[in-house]
From TrEMBL:
PANTHER family linked: GLUTATHIONE S-TRANSFERASE GSTA, GLUTATHIONE S-TRANSFERASE-RELATED
Source superkingdom: Bacteria
Stretches assigned to the GST N-terminal domain: 1-77
UniProt protein name: Glutathione S-transferase family protein
Domain GST C-terminal, chain residue ranges per copy: 83-198
InterPro entries xref list: Glutathione-S-Trfase_C-like, Glutathione-S-Trfase_C_sf, Glutathione_S-Trfase, Glutathione_S-Trfase_N, Thioredoxin-like_sf
Source species of the chain: Vitreoscilla stercoraria
Pfam families for the chain: GST_N (PF02798)
Length: 198
């Protein structure tokens, strides 16, 4: 397998999954310009990462890649080791992180694409940060309502987004359960290996 990545991007999640699964794989590190080359666009017309190439079978989007890896490597328990309902709940939080949190954090990185003036960008970022705090608070409530379990790939994903949030000085210090999860994820050997390789 070959995984195309960008440093510190959402592709970290797929890298961790492959590491947890002990899957033989090659990581191809791109820069942003590399995702727009004719060669890469011929593989992935979306021009984004991650892209997983499994002997010519090409998959984009983290959710699809993780579902594929979960089927091939069930022993890795990417979505937890529970029954179908428990795994579906983990997938729900993964999807929530992807569609709600990740998409909003993208606005913080690309505010100039949405509004022109510095004042408008500052206002947009402030509004998005407030919305993000509410979304992270939902994660925190979810964690408070359950006993601590083995880490899942959804936990890794939300922790990765928290790294991005820190880059934009989003204060999440009041979310105690979420911060405890973050520390657990960052202490995971596979996560440490992947982050060190960025």
């Amino acid at each position: 397998m070959k995984l195309y990545t960008l440093p510190h991007a959402g592709s970290i999640v797929a890298q961790v999954a492959l590491t947890w699964a002990k899957a033989e794989h090659e990581v191809v590190k791109l820069d942003f310009a590399g995702t727009k080359t004719p060669e890469y666009l011929s593989l992935n017309p979306q021009g984004v990462v991650p892209l997983l190439d499994d002997n010519g079978f090409l998959i984009t989007q983290n959710m699809a890649i993780l579902n594929y890896l979960n089927q091939i490597y069930p022993e890795a328990k990417l979505f937890g080791g529970g029954d179908i309902k428990a795994q579906t709940q983990v997938q729900q939080w993964f999807a929530f992180t992807n569609s709600d949190i990740h998409s909003k954090i993208s606005v913080l990185f690309k505010a100039a694409q949405w509004v022109e003036t510095d004042a408008a960008q500052a206002s947009l970022k402030a509004n998005v940060k407030a919305q993000l705090h509410q979304l992270y608070a939902l994660w925190d409530q979810h964690l408070q309502a359950q006993a601590q379990k083995a880490l899942t790939i959804a936990d890794v994903y939300v922790a990765v987004t928290m790294n991005w949030a820190k880059m934009h000085a989003l204060d999440l210090s009041d979310l105690v359960a979420l911060n405890a999860l973050y520390e657990r994820v960052m202490s995971d050997p596979a996560v440490q290996t992947v982050l060190a390789a960025q």
